[in-house]
Amino acid sequence: MRVSRARGSTSFPARFILVGAMNPCPCGEGGAPGACRCSSAAQERYARRLSAPFLDRFDIAIRVDRPLAHELFGRPSAEGSATVASRVAGARERAAERGVRVNADLAGPRLADDAPLSRGAVAIVERQIRSGTLSARGLHRVHRLSRTIADLDGAGEVIGEAHVREALLLRGQRRLLPGGGLR
Amino acid sequence: MNVPAQLESHAGALAGLPGMTPVRLAKLLDGFGPALAWEAVKAGTHPADPRRKFAVPARRTDVDDLGRRYAGAGVRILLPGAAGYPSMLTGDPGAPAVLFASGDPTVVERRARVAIVGTRSATHYGRQVASELAAELADHGVVVVSGLARGIDGAAHAGALRGESEGAGPPVAVVGTGLDVVYPPSNRELWARVAGRGVVFSESALGTQPHPGVFPARNRIIAALADVVVVVESHHGGGSLYTAEAAARRGIPVCAVPGSVHSRASAGTNGLLVDGCIPVRDATDVLVAVALARAGPDARAGAPPPADVAPSHRGHPSRSARAPAGERASGGVGSRMAASLTPAQRTVWEAVDDTPTAFETILIRTDLPLAAAAEACGQLVESGALRSGAGWWSRS
Fold this sequence. Notes:
The complex is a heterodimer of chains A (about 180) and B (about 400). Chain A is mainly α and about 180 residues long. Chain A has eight helices and two strands. In chain B, the strands form two sheets. Chain B has a nine-stranded mixed beta sheet with strand order 1-2-6-5-4-3-7-8-9, with helices on both faces. Chain B has a three-stranded antiparallel beta sheet with strand order 10-12-11.
């Protein structure tokens, strides 16, 4: 981690994956209609505790709702950890072939070669940028994330529309409040 | 195999002539028995067919062979006043002149009957309420009548079939197509279960394909069979408002389930409530309405007689005049748009409410793979069908 200031710059050794969880609002119901008891002012105060630049570092954010009881039963069990681990190992191998440990380390200029987007995927990203829902930094992060999604999917070199859509969706849920200016 | 008697076969043959409508069929059978009417049509001498348009197809029809086809399909042909024909339809000015049944048509007799109807493009809320109401009513021995369509109808039938008690009310459906044409095909299993435990009625001959005209006409039969009609969700000007109107003309009480004022799928039902229909929060509200309806059949006697079989308008007359043009246009967008969706988009669209839904919930409800659901969500947001923000998705 490199911090640059007027008098010089210093490098701190840091290599980590940060995983965090929080409630969506003080009462924990997250503004779900009929359940949340928080005033909008309380929700805003709560959401402001995490600054936008901080949240921007999270590539994946998922809002977890409380499913209804009958939606929980009779569901097929999810993939086992061993299966997922082998897919992750495969994706890491692909990253190693590109000369990086993980795709997050791919330098911006190399994305075009190492993570080519299909024509449809480019169109989706372009639409997002033009409509202002995706920033330049957001674009790079979505690009790397979709690279990893495609790798996990066992897809080829070219990143498809569904991969970009998934990346956009995973990154697009960081805001706690609708209309918060985070891109 | 019970081959239908000559009378029934002739009635089935008349109903199956190309271009036949319930109104034309009623005119052909008015004052004629089925066999006489058939011979007259064939000979080109029937006064209700002055242009002899039915004569040629009639001459090409083998009535006995047709009777065996009905028997083979397990479909009974019911004539007014004869055994099996629902007694509550007898005397109804819009009563079908011929009714086809697969299953046991007598289940509608001597039981309370509630029609649960609503929009095909229902929200999760609507489907849930329809299913819960139907299950509890069935548990109370009530016959739940619906139309086996997508959305509210399907949820109501599925709920009624869930009724667990010993004396659970058998399910009843009235469909627009011929009884050998399952529409929508996705309801095939539901259709078979309704016919197995109750009955599926139709006034269309075997082989009749779905077309826009049959559904409003079908709705009047649903209304006429019921003691009470419950509309769970309906868009502004939706087809289920026609069922409500047909019920109101017959003096049959109409109930409506209130919905969010932001929900387009509740615009029609909330409108019914403004017009004085009975609000329904749970099965108890419906049971009270049923008890009142069955206690006071005299109330029906004073009601104005139903008008024609297939009215020209489907909207709710007192509301349509007041609705702003923008809302009326957007009300129709839902169904038009639904037709152009990919299967994954439709699945996601049906899993999302007007109330915000988390992506995880969408995944649970749809069983779609993550990427497919993400793609469908993205596309629906781009096309303007869905709105997303702060991790919530809702219908826009």
